[in-house]
Task: structure prediction
Amino acid sequence: MKVSSSLGAAHDAVSGFTKLQGAPAGQHVVIDSSNVSGMLNGARAANETLKNVTELISGVKNEATKVTALAAEIEARDDRDAASWGGMS
Result:
């Protein structure tokens, strides 16, 4: 039985996250001619939500990158360990 880490499996697990896209820079909701407080509050809420979702996506993509980097390190360590035991990598 061979137990080892797989960079490919880690990449497959997080590849969908790296494709996420946030809002283009500067994109926001504008209510030009309304002075209805509910509409203005809605626009402010939408803009805050847009900003927060964009920050969340950035964080998720950053963590996904860390997963693949860590998997590469673990795979290399496992290969060294297997070689030291006389196993095949």
User: Anything to note?
Assistant: Residues 34-74 form one domain. The first helix runs from residue 7 to 18. The two ends are 12 Å apart (CA to CA).
